[in-house]
């Protein structure tokens, strides 16, 4: 029988509200159904390109659908969120100092990308990223 610490799976099922159990089971059925859906060759190709050439797909998407001024606003939003978290950690009365210091250190080291990485904006930069892939396609 399955156990979690000292509780049996049977007891867990008995203790779980019926609505929660029904929601869980419905979600599992829906997740499984989505795995079985055939999206067709076009969607399969799109998924393949995004999986294997994510940076290139992102670059095309950002160039066609993002406005530069929105990217700037997004960066400002992220920076203000980071500042708010830092202030929250610094002013926290319930975090022990070691945890507080660790959280602040992690926040300060965190990198973020809004839109598209600037280093790939230079002409040819993205080509270098996929050069090995292209060489393999034509020479393997």
TrEMBL record:
Membrane-spanning segments: none
A GO molecular-function descriptor: metalloendopeptidase activity
Cross-referenced InterPro entries: MetalloPept_cat_dom_sf (IPR024079), Peptidase_M13 (IPR000718), Peptidase_M13_dom_2 (IPR042089), Peptidase_M13_N (IPR008753)
GO cellular component, as recorded: plasma membrane
A GO BP entry: protein processing
Superkingdom field: Eukaryota
Domain Peptidase M13 N-terminal per the UniProt entry, residue ranges: 9-117
Pfam families, A to Z: Peptidase_M13_N (PF05649)
Homology family: Belongs to the peptidase M13 family.
Name this polypeptide is given: Peptidase_M13_N domain-containing protein
Native source species: Caenorhabditis japonica
